[in-house]
Amino acid sequence: MSTQPAPDDVRHHYAQAAQAAADGTAACCDDDLANFGAHLYDSLDDVIISNCVINLSPDKAAVFAEMHRVLRPGGRIGVSHVVAEDGLTPAQRAERGTHLGCIAGALSASEDHDGLTAARFANITITHTHAVADRFHSAIIQAHKTG
Q1: Please, which residues have CB within 8 angstroms of residue 97's CB and are 6 or more apart in sequence?
Q2: Which residues are CB-contacts of 90 (< 8 A; sequence separation ≥ 6)?
Q3: Rounded to 5 degrees, what are φ and ψ at 78?
Q4: Which entry of 81, 82, 85, 146 is 20 to 30 Å from 128 by CA?
Q5: Residues in the chain with pLDDT < 70?
Q6: Which pLDDT score is estimated for 55?
Q7: Stretch (H or E) spanning 6
Q8: Domains assigned to the chain
């Protein structure tokens, strides 16, 4: 499943998905990120990988909930995106960047952790990899669906 908000990215990922779809292993949609799972069955997927896409959604709680819904028990997520340092307000985050740069839409590490916990993920780790802007870091986020 590939979800991309930019039209050029959508065309590119549809072409890639078409190649993989012959064996039923890939799908692509250009829906609102909060509804990406509408095309998928409950508890079906083993892994969800996201690279700097969740920050573009205005409803991250819905994205986390959909990720949890479509994962099978024991399934996992791997997310790479920008996180803000704790203590920056949403207004301060917006001052520092745009959604295009994944900064204005960034949650703090604590907010990401709390959102994933609220969506019932477990074993959540958030590892900063490097600074991308003043008080913003690239991070790798991993979590599992239990049960």
Answers
A1: 103, 104, 133, 136
A2: none
A3: -130, 115
A4: 146
A5: 1-41, 98-101
A6: 87
A7: none
A8: 1-30 (no CATH), 42-145 (3.40.50.150)
